[in-house]
Amino acid sequence: MAFRVPQVVVLSVLLLAVPALVHAAGRILFPPADVWLTGDSLRLVGRSDSQTGEVTLRLKQTSGQSELRFPVENGVFSGLVSLDSGLNELQLVGEASEAARRRVFRAASAAGEGAPAGFVHYHLHSKGDAAENCSGCHERTPEGAMRYDRLVQDRSCSTASCHPNFLRQKYPHSPLEGGSCAGCHNPHGTSSRFFLKAERAALCYSCHDMEQARFDQEHQHFPVRTGECVACHDPHQSDFPFHLKRGSIAGVCSGCHPRSTEKFAVPHEPFREGDCIACHDPHASRHANLQYEDKSEMCFQCHEDRRQELELRYVHKPMAEDCKLCHDPHGSAIEFHLRTLKDGEGRYLTAEKPIAESCLVCHRKLDPEVSAAIEGARVPHKPVAEKKCTTCHTPHSSDFPKLLRGPLDTLCFPCHAELKKQIENSAFLHGPVRQKDCAKCHAVHGSDSPGMLIAPFSAEYSSDFKEESYALCYNCHLKDVYLDRESMATGFRNGRQNLHFLHVNTKDGRGCMACHEIHASNQEFHLRETIPFKKRFTISLKFTRGETGGGCVVGCHKPREYDRENPAGAR
User: Sign of the C-alpha dihedral, residues 440, 441, 446, 448?
Assistant: First the structure.
């Protein structure tokens, strides 16, 4: 950058008027080796092996070669050097070490065009020649000798003419608070911007060395990985803890993560409070997304009660793997921060039936047939129609298959109270009911058949026989029982005469439910005690079991008997 410097007085001219001094050996401290700048002069500072005397500097430039003499005071020499455009070579006379020579390139612009390869930009202090008066910053011993390793304690850069705004905020950085600006900055000039003693995080780690070791983990925050500590922290002062910029933790995060300010209808509490570091380590972590713990374990730090659910027999896979598969840790459009479908900009869509929509996000792919029943069955289960999956299922874990809230039979009874009463008061239970397997006959989410049955079943008292009308029964019972006029496959026969065929497979035959209860009964073979007939009339049925047959007393025909071994009269 371009700047103005005081008028340079070539010291070699002034020194002609003073007596010759003792030549002293030394080394150059500033500038460092191989630098470029745009100014027309710089101050050279060095150390001498002697406390007094002088050093001679040979200056080789495009305009020629000259010598400059600098007096030594308290072991230090310094002076201004005029620079020509292009390469300027400086060498302490009588010294051959690299520490006694420097190369400085004066560039025409701040871009540094023409600078030799390997040369770095040298930045001079912007407020004049800060190295001119050593005693302004360095202490003296009681004897008056300069101590270049110690700074004047009350020396501060925060003055009205230089840095007037420092030390005005609640949390000053320790070096600034202690007046130790030189702890981080070099006032003479450096190859780092802002006259820093080291670049980026290397400067911070000169004090915060323990943090450097802690940050050496698999996942590093981008500013940490690139060494840009000042992307988040103000190196001088702040009104917020940890010297944070932008007013708050969330404010700092939003500088790079604009979605961190998104407004959710249902925000997660830490996100709502702007407390990003409740879940994320701002520097480095062993876990993805800079979480303090991995996946679900992160959630269990607060939701300890959920950890116990992992001990149940059946655990929902997302919970075992990562709660975030179902819950958005920042927030969403529905309760419990559940994930739903998103719009083209990645924002959650409000769902009419939120719980079900959240489940279907995954289950449309995992269980397409079940999802189709949930979304399109002509006869849906009531909880499904209301999109209340958690009426029957627990979303996290269960001791029952399919994450059911209880055994299938007792799970159904709270809604089907009359059926529960019938089953509890019956002596004979249908096989699936006895096995407590409602799903043996019913599609629990919904189906296209009445009663949510898994296959067609005619509940009519009488109708013309159609084989497909009783497809449900064929899942357990042989078709021959209904289709063959004579059959040994059924106990309901008179000799070989199949009495099921007689009742069912005729014109205007009797349906299964004309004689049988489908869930439970107090007569054997699930026979009814009364048969509904037409709209208002009922027919009683009493069955008597025999050793090789039985008999019926029923209102729809006169008493009949059957015998498998000694057939009764022709039917």
Answer: positive
Half-sphere exposure of 14 (CA within 13 A, CB side): 10
CB-based contact 451:377 (threshold 8 Å): no
Closest CA to 41 of 83, 86, 102: 83
Question: Omega of the bond prior to 31 within 30 degrees of 0, cis?
Answer: yes
pLDDT digits (tens, 9 = 90+) for 206-232: 889 888 889 999 999 999 999 999 999
Phi, psi torsion values for 46, nearest 5 degrees: -150, 170
Query: Exposure of 17 by Cβ count < 10 A (0-12 exposed, 13-18 middle, 19+ buried)?
Result: exposed
Whole-angstrom Cα distance, residue 349 to residue 264?
A: 11
Cβ neighbours for 154, distance < 8 A, ≥ 6 positions apart = 179
Contacts of 535 (CB under 8 A, 6+ apart): none
CA distances from 349 to 53, 260, 340, 372 (A): 81, 18, 7, 21
3-state secondary structure of 246: coil
Q: How confident is the model over 117-162, as pLDDT tens digits?
A: 999 999 887 655 545 566 667 777 787 777 766 776 666 677 777 7
Residue whose structure tokens are 């304690």: 153
Cβ(115)–Cβ(36) below 8 Å = yes
CB count, 10 Å around CB of 510? 19
**59 neighbors 44 (Cβ within 8 angstroms):** no
Structure tokens given for 94 = 């009588």
Collapsed DSSP state (helix, strand, coil) of residue 102: strand
What does the pLDDT look like over 263-286, one tens digit per residue? 889 999 999 998 999 999 999 999
What pTM was computed for the model?
A: 0.69
Nearest-angstrom CA–CA distance, 155 and 157: 7
